[in-house]
Amino acid sequence: MALKVNQKNKETIVEQKQEGNEQQREKEEERLWSWGAGTDGQLGTARLEDEHLPQLLNVPSLSSSGPVSMLACGGSHVVALTSGGKVLTWGRGNSGQLGHGEMVNSLLTPKPVLSLESSFITQVSAGWNHSGFVSDEGCVFTCGDGSFGQLGHGDYRSHCSPVKVSFFDNKHVEQIACGMRHSLVLLKDSSGNQLFGFGSGRRGQLGISIDRIKSVNTPQVTCGFEVVKIISISANGDHSAALSADGQLYTWGRSFGANSDFLSPQHLPSPLQFSKAVLGWNHALVLSDDGQVFMLGGSHHGVLSNPEKVTPSKHLSVFFQVWQLYVPQFKCNCFGFGKYRITCFGESPWSRWDENCADCSWS
C-alpha cells in the first residue's frame, strides 16, 4: 500500500498494489495512519511530536482481535475498536479517559483496555476528556473526567477504568456520543423515552429542558422525540445532533451561527434524506442517501452561516461517492471517497498538509 499526498488539491490517495495474494492485500488494508497534533501521544507513534504528514502506526496487539473497525478521537486521546470487540486507547490520560486504571499524562502507543476484555464492545465514543463504550449486551460504560456529570454515574467523580452506567440496567443501549463535557445515549427501544443526555447543559446541549441547566449527573430524557424514531446520534463541543429513521436532521445546543442557543431539539427541514451526521466544533457535516456532503455552521470557519437551512457545500464542486464522514473534537473534516481516497480540510494549526479551505478567512 502506498499513501501519497496530492499537493494541488491536498487529497491523500492510498494506492493499492495489484500483485500479491488476497490475504496480503487484506493485511495491508488494516493499517492505521495518524497525523496532526501529537504532543500528548495521541498519534500513537511512540513520540511526543506533531506530524505534518500521515504516519503509519505499529499496532501489533491487533493481530488476535481483528482489524480496527472504528476510531474515536477526543480532545487529545484516541479510542480504537476492533472487529473482535476489543478496545485500545492512547494519548492523554490525565483524567482517566484511557481506561487503564490510572491517570497518566500520556500513553504513546495503543494499549488494550483490559477491564473491558470480558465484554464484546460494539461502539465507542471519545469526548474532550472522557470516553464511552457500548457492549453487544446493551450495556454502556464510561470513564475519564466526571466533573460535569458527563459519566452519568450520579456524581461528579472521575474514573480511571470504565464503569457501567447503572441507570441503564434492564435497558438496551444502542449508541453513546460524547461531546466536550456532555454525553448522549440512544436506547434500542423505538418508542417513548429513547434518547438521554447527561453532563453539562449550559448551552442546551442535553435537550432536556426549556430552561438552561448547568449540569446533571444522571441521565435525563431528551425531549421532543416522543413520536420520532431516532437511529443515530452525534455530539461535539457544546451541541448535539440526531438523525431519524426517515432521514431527517435534528440539532440542539450551542448555535452554529450568531443565533441563540437551542435548548431543545430543532428539526432542520430538507427535501433530502440523510444517512449520516457528524458534528464539529462550529459546524456539522451530513451525508445524503445519494452520497453527497452538505455543511452548516459559522461562516468564519469556512462553512455555511445559516443554521436553519442545509445547503450544498460551496467547497466541494465535484462529488465522489462518499462512504464515511468524520469530524474530530476540533475544527477539521475528513471524507472517505471510494475505498482508498481521503480528503481533509479545515483549520489545522498543527499541520501544513490539512490547510484551511480556500474560502476560509482564518490563516
If you had to describe this structure to a student in words, what would you say it looks like?
The chain is an all-beta fold and 363 residues long. It has one domain: Regulator of chromosome condensation 1/beta-lactamase-inhibitor protein II (Methylamine Dehydrogenase, Chain H), CATH 2.130.10.30. It is 2% helix and 43% strand. The strands form seven sheets. The chain has a five-stranded antiparallel sheet with strand order 1-2-27-26-25, with no helix packed on it. Strands 5-6-7-8 form a four-stranded antiparallel sheet, with no helix packed on it. Strands 9-10-11-12 form a four-stranded antiparallel sheet, with no helix packed on it. It is built from one helix and 27 strands. It is globular and about 45 Å long. Strand 26 and strand 27 (341-346) form a beta hairpin.
